[in-house]
């Protein structure tokens, strides 16, 4: 029997701190919507567990209570509600108003400050996830595999290994190793972590408690969200202090490239666009550029290379590199349309630059799903100068929208963008521009390469079409997860 057919019997609990469209701050929100749907399409019995933030309670208002969770250790009591995501995938909503009914986002208040009780908020999420994957499950349904995502869920493998009966195997997926969930060690008691786990061969990390460390240490498998990132997190440059531990677990580490939701991100049907188009009607992309220029107050200029950016405004994303490159970029026939939010200093700097040159630079500070789609379609090229990028989704969206990405050669960007060369163009492999150094000069050089190709309309069209022809669907990668689950089950059963 093929591995995928074997996987069809598996019950998978996919625990996540965010899931689009109910709660999303970044790529994890998108992946939490699209990967479970792809796994369900393969026949797996997959269920998503996420906290009942107000937006989730509102979206899942028809969800009904399926279990009461009694308080344990220093964690409060809660309820499990069962509903369905828009994809049809079952969702378990962890309802605990004292922890999750907040005005701000999933992790931070409206001022961008982390909630002071995040250890408990995500400790509870991890604890309930682990119970659902054990003989102590509060439901008849009990997971065969626990699929954890990032630090807010990464304590779950520790709970499974540290005493829950009938524990299922677990994997922790690293979407971003830089976020580690580090808290004072004295919160361990309230989380119910036994004293023997509070050491470096356990959850302790330089005198503190690290959720991510716990996951990396106790999970049966570790997955990084691209093959290149799987390699990078073993190095000092990208290991964020965890490289030693990751290295000791290298034989349990895999890299699986994220896919995208090909329906939500489809220029042929995207309801946010003025004019829909596909690879055969690429000329219909042009009205989207004009519409974007008009909407953002940029000059109506068909010939300018309109660069789009949709990003968290943080050091990771290399936002400062673009700011520093602006004088050089503005000396070229270039416009910029940026959508993003994050560090106050970057928000301020972009506002100022846009105010100084409104016909060339537009900066919309905030989160706006509609505008994100319109930038993907309306821009000529998409810029991602990330210092590191575990996978990155926007470069995939932009290729699907015929908007070649200009990206730094790191992580998933290496695995999903084909660098321009004349040969690569004609072989169908080139789909964007990569640059190596995290410097403004290297970025400008890559933009110059793009400008040169942009001046040759036939070559540019071929480049756009190469990107549009790439398959970023979950098909292959969901199958890789399914095969991994089967292998984990086989080891657990042996
Ligand atoms: P990360 O998860 O590191 O932020 P990704 O490229 O993996 O980066 O995913 C980012 C996701 O969040 C994409 O779907 C992107 O369109 C979206 N996004 C980021 N910032 C904004 C914003 N300001 N408005 C709308 N969508 C945004």
Automatic annotation (TrEMBL):
Glycosyl transferase family domain sequence ranges: 300-452
Top-level enzyme category: transferase
Pathway linked to the protein: Glycan biosynthesis; glycogen biosynthesis
Segments forming domain Starch synthase catalytic: 11-247
UniProt catalytic activity: [(1->4)-alpha-D-glucosyl](n) + ADP-alpha-D-glucose = [(1->4)-alpha-D-glucosyl](n+1) + ADP + H(+)
Residues engaged in binding ADP-alpha-D-glucose: 24
EC number in record: 2.4.1.21
GO molecular function annotation: alpha-1,4-glucan glucosyltransferase (ADP-glucose donor) activity
HAMAP family: Glycogen_synth (MF_00484)
The protein's name: Glycogen synthase
């Amino acid at each position: 029997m093929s591995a995928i057919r074997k996987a069809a019997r598996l019950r998978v609990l996919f625990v996540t701190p965010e899931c689009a469209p109910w709660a999303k701050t970044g790529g994890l929100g998108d992946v939490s919507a699209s990967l479970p749907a792809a796994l369900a399409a393969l026949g797996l019995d997959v269920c998503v567990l996420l906290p009942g933030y107000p937006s989730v309670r509102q979206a899942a208002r028809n969800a009904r209570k399926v279990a009461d969770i009694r308080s344990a250790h220093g964690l409060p009591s809660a309820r499990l509600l069962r509903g369905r995501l828009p994809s049809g995938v079952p969702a378990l909503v962890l309802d605990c108003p004292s922890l999750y009914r907040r005005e701000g986002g999933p992790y931070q208040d409206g001022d961008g400050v982390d909630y002071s009780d995040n250890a408990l908020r995500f400790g509870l999420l991890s604890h309930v996830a682990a119970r659902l994957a054990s003989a102590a499950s509060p439901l008849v349904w009990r997971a065969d595999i626990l699929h954890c995502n990032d630090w807010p869920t990464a304590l779950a493998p520790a709970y499974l290994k540290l005493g829950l009966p009938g524990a299922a195997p677990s994997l922790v997926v690293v979407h971003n190793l830089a976020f580690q969930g580090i808290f004072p060690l004295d919160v361990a008691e309230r989380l119910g972590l036994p004293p023997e786990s509070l050491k470096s061969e356990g959850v302790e990390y330089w005198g503190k408690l690290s959720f991510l460390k716990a996951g990396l240490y106790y999970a049966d498998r570790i997955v990084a969200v691209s093959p290149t990132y799987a390699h990078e997190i073993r190095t000092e440059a990208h290991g964020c202090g965890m490289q030693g531990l990751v290295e000791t677990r290298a034989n349990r580490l895999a890299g699986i490239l994220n896919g995208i939701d090909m329906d939500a991100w489809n220029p042929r049907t995207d309801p946010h666009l003025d004019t829909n188009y596909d690879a055969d009607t690429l000329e219909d992309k042009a009205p989207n550029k004009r519409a974007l220029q008009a909407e953002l107050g940029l000059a109506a200029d068909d010939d300018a290379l309109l660069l789009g950016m949709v990003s968290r405004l943080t050091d990771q994303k290399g936002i400062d590199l673009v700011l520093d490159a602006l004088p050089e970029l503005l000396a070229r026939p270039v416009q910029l349309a940026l959508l993003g939010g994050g560090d106050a200093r970057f928000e301020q700097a972009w506002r100022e630059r846009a105010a100084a040159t409104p016909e060339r630079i537009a900066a919309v500070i905030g989160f706006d799903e509609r505008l994100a789609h319109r930038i993907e379609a309306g821009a000529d090229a998409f810029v991602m100068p990330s210092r590191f990028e575990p996978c990155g989704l926007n470069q995939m969206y932009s290729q699907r929208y015929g908007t070649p990405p200009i990206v730094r050669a790191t992580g998933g960007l290496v695995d999903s963008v084909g660098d321009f060369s004349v040969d690569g163009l004609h072989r169908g492999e080139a789909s964007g521009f990569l640059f190596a150094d995290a410097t403004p000069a290297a970025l400008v050089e890559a933009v110059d390469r793009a400008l040169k190709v942009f001046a040759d309309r036939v070559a540019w069209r071929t480049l756009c079409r190469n990107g549009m022809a790439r398959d970023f669907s979950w098909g292959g990668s969901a199958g890789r997860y399914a095969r991994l689950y089967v292998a984990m089950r086989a080891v657990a059963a042996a």
